[in-house]
Write a structure and sequence with these properties.
It is a single chain. It is built from 8 helices and 4 strands; from the N terminus they run βαβααααααββα. The chain has 212 residues and is an alpha+beta fold. The chain has a 4-stranded mixed beta sheet, sandwiched between helices. Helix 1 (15-31) links the parallel strand 1 (5-10) and strand 2. Helix 1 runs parallel beside helix 2. It is globular. The two termini are 16 Å apart.
Length: 212
């Protein structure tokens, strides 16, 4: 196990996290041998019970447009966030946690699948049946996924993730934190390009090398 961990704090239904998805994938690919990548789900709107108001919907779609402009990630705007939609991010977060509990190899693929389904295919990723389908798409058996997803362990672990993000003082997603023997190092709070991210990771790794 690498002594250095890169913590990615995100929510599957956070548009800037979707925008950041290619950056985090590149980092996983380029630094995977040297760093351990771990995900904490942040709970952007976990536990929301009220449908979106028209004003809130307009505000969120404005964010989506900004993310698309800044990152080039695909979005479908026509028909997005329908009138009765309840923007509760807990089920999607718990789905990713469930994948993690089954086998950590599924963590990032399921996160990406949920993001794509929500932002591009306009699929309601707050529904269990949808999440089971997405889990099977990335190779998890429907039976084991639904068993874990509905378990108290998954519910509890998801809440632990939310608490961890709060404990770290994280107010926005995506956030990336490096952890080494010296402690925690903020690498980004909010979107940044792969160039910037790569530079920050390199500086952190080289600095912590000189300390170790």
């Amino acid at each position: 196990m690498n002594a250095r961990i890169v913590w990615y704090i995100a929510d599957p239904m956070c548009s800037w996290c979707w925008g950041f998805s290619p950056v985090i994938e590149t980092i996983r690919h380029d630094y995977g041998e040297r760093l351990t990548m771990k995900l904490v789900v942040g709970g952007l709107r976990a536990g929301t019970t009220e449908p979106l108001t028209p004003g809130k919907r307009a505000e969120i779609l404005q964010h989506w447009h900004n993310v698309q402009r800044m990152t080039g990630q695909p979005f479908t705007f026509e028909g997005a966030l329908p009138a009765e939609f309840i923007y509760d991010t807990e089920p999607a977060c718990r789905a990713v946690v469930s994948a993690m509990l089954i086998d950590s190899l599924y963590t990032f693929p399921l996160l990406a699948a949920i993001q794509h389904a929500f932002y591009v295919e306009l699929i309601d990723v707050t529904q269990l049946q949808t999440l089971i389908q997405l889990a099977t798409d990335v190779g998890i058996s429907a039976e084991s996924f639904s068993q874990v997803f509905t378990s108290d362990v998954a519910k509890q672990t998801t809440q632990d993730h939310f608490r961890q993000a709060i404990q770290w003082g994280i107010r926005g997603f995506p956030t990336v934190i490096g952890q080494d023997v010296a402690g925690l190092h903020l690498l980004t709070n909010g979107y940044c390009t792969i160039e910037t991210m790569g530079q920050r990771i390199d500086i952190w790794v080289n600095t912590s090398n000189s300390h170790s």
